[in-house]
Design brief:
8-stranded mixed sheet; globular
Length: 255
């Protein structure tokens, strides 16, 4: 069975904290350059730049496979990666949560630009609502909405001291069936692997890239029959199989 390199946590120019070079076309080019097999743009609370990514993938069969989603911030200020097979489904999720965003306008000079672009890097519009704020939905409500749309929810960077499920709640709720959680690219991976409280969870790491050069610095390898969303979804549901291998590149060396 082939092994695939996946990075499902990449921010584009739609995220205000992201570099202005992070257009979908440059992201896809960089992902190809560093040998990633499956990627996703996961902007804060929006999926719209996935439209350009989908168009680019249609024109380039050899490019990495693309999933679509967002990094949603819940009412508890917890970041969750919400991933879908198709951009149309991700956009349904965006339309459902957009009215639930805190109504605070973005200040580009303070927070950064939030830009929707097309596949040619042309600006379509600037998003006016501040995207680094919470959606008025609790964690369990987000989980239900995403799974009802046949998507995947992965708690983001659970080792971080802010905006993680552990920093905000102190624990991972037992009543929400998360099979997989994400560690940040700088996490002490062995401490989680050797912690019995995480023995029933798959551990993954993605790059959480905000700049082009960060793409390819952290990824997860997994054996799958193919690069489809269905195969990936099946793999992360198998808690006991532990199919994931976390990899990081430090100064050009893989560990």
């Amino acid at each position: 069975m082939p092994t695939f390199k996946i990075d499902l946590h990449i921010h584009s120019v739609l995220s205000p904290c992201s570099d202005l070079m992070m257009s979908p076309s440059r992201i896809l080019d960089r992902a190809s350059e560093v040998g990633l097999d499956i990627i996703a743009i996961s902007d804060h609370n929006m999926a719209e730049n996935g439209k350009a990514l989908a168009e680019l993938k249609l024109r380039n069969f050899s490019a990495p496979e693309c999933f679509f989603g967002m990094e949603l911030q819940t009412e508890e200020e917890v970041h969750l990666l919400c991933l879908f097979e198709a951009i149309d489904t991700a956009m349904i999720m965006q339309e459902e949560i957009y009215p639930l965003l805190i109504s605070q306008p973005n200040n580009p000079d303070l927070f950064g630009y939030q830009i929707v672009v097309d596949e040619f890097d042309e600006i379509i519009r600037h998003e006016e609502k501040l995207l680094i704020s919470s959606v008025m939905l609790r964690i369990n409500d987000v989980f239900k909405k995403v799974t009802d749309l046949e998507g995947i929810v992965i708690p983001s960077h659970i080792d971080r001291e802010s905006f993680s499920i552990i920093s905000q709640l102190g624990f991972i709720p037992a009543d929400i069936p998360f099979p997989t959680v994400e560690l940040s690219r700088n996490a002490d991976i062995n401490s989680f692997i050797n912690d019995p409280s995480f023995s029933n969870l798959n551990l993954v790491t993605f790059s959480d890239s905000h700049r082009i050069e960060e793409i390819g610095t952290a990824w997860t390898e997994i054996e799958l029959e193919d690069r489809s969303f269905a195969c990936f979804k099946e793999a992360i549901s198998m808690k006991s199989a532990k199919p994931f291998k976390i990899r990081r590149s430090v100064n050009g060396y893989t560990n």
